[in-house]
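Below is how a single chain appears once it has passed through the pipeline. First comes the sequence as given, then the structure the pipeline wrote out for it. We keep one example in the README because the format questions we get most often are answered faster by looking than by reading.
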Amino acid sequence: MQYKVLKIEEDMDFGCEERQQGEVLMAVVLLEDESGNETSLRHDDGLLYERDINEGDLVTMDGQHQLWKL
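Resulting structure:
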């Protein structure tokens, strides 16, 4: 299934603590599927940069909820 990336935001929810040293920086990605349904997921922010995934891009998702640019 294809998704359109609607929004990418830094995940600021660390509970009652700050992000731990060495912990991967996560992003919250808002997606829209082919039927117009919206969903969000947490994703490794570094992988989004590495895969050049930006707002407005079309992506697919593998079985481990990893996003890949089309």
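The radius of gyration is 13 Å.

See the next section for the split statistics.
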